[in-house]
User: Which sequence fits this backbone?
């Protein structure tokens, strides 16, 4: 990723929504050493328990979910913050309310970068066909 970073201003309306699993989408923004992701979960959705080598810090912007962190479950609501060290299992479940959360990763998650590059490529192709 070194050298890919360019200073810029963005609006979340202009960032493609990447569908991760049914009911869960995200809008990632990449810097050279950090990634911010707006996470959108529909009601009654599941972000399966997983782990990754990147450190993650997040907060709830709107709504709520039950967040499982290293086997411990807690309802996360607006204003709550969670810290996920590298390789620690975590996941989330929404119930009657959906949510919007904000996650920060360091270093950026390479899988999300590949997904975003593909989504942007498809958008450019569609624009070229018009």
Assistant:
């Amino acid at each position: 990723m070194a050298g890919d970073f360019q200073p810029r201003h963005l609006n979340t309306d202009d960032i493609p929504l990447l569908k991760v699993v049914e009911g869960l989408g995200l809008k990632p923004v990449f810097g050279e050493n950090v990634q911010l992701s707006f996470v959108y979960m529909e009601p009654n959705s599941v972000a399966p328990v997983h782990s990754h080598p990147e450190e993650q810090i997040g907060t709830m912007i709107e709504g709520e979910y039950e967040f499982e962190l290293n086997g411990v479950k807690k309802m996360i609501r607006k204003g709550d913050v969670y810290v996920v060290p590298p390789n620690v299992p975590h996941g989330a479940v929404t119930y009657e309310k959906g949510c919007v959360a904000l996650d920060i990763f360091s270093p950026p998650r390479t899988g999300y970068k590949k997904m975003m590059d593909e989504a942007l490529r498809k958008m450019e192709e569609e624009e070229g066909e018009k």
